[in-house]
Amino acid sequence: MPPRIPRACRKHGCRNTTIHSSGYCPEHQNTGWENHQQGKTRHERGYGANWDKLTPLIKARDKGLCQQCLREGLVVSGTTVDHIIPANGPAVKRPDIFNRE
């Protein structure tokens, strides 16, 4: 299959090109989803009771340490739980302990 033709990034004012199916360059990859989520509560965005229940479990599993910092050789207390691979929609926000740190 021939390579895709680079097109202008969909972010207003961006001069980069992309071949990604979203239409956004790597710098603005999550822009479309961010705009879609503006003004919604965390529960409306899919971070409800299940997220609240899993957060202490993830912190205990990781021994309360920032996993990203550990990969860089630093020992720092972890304060938040986030996706390892970004969630790109409500279906991805299901309780999955393996995609969180």
Automatic annotation (TrEMBL):
Residues 27-47 are annotated as: Disordered. Residues 28-38 have a biased composition (Polar residues). This is HNH endonuclease. It comes from Yersinia aldovae.
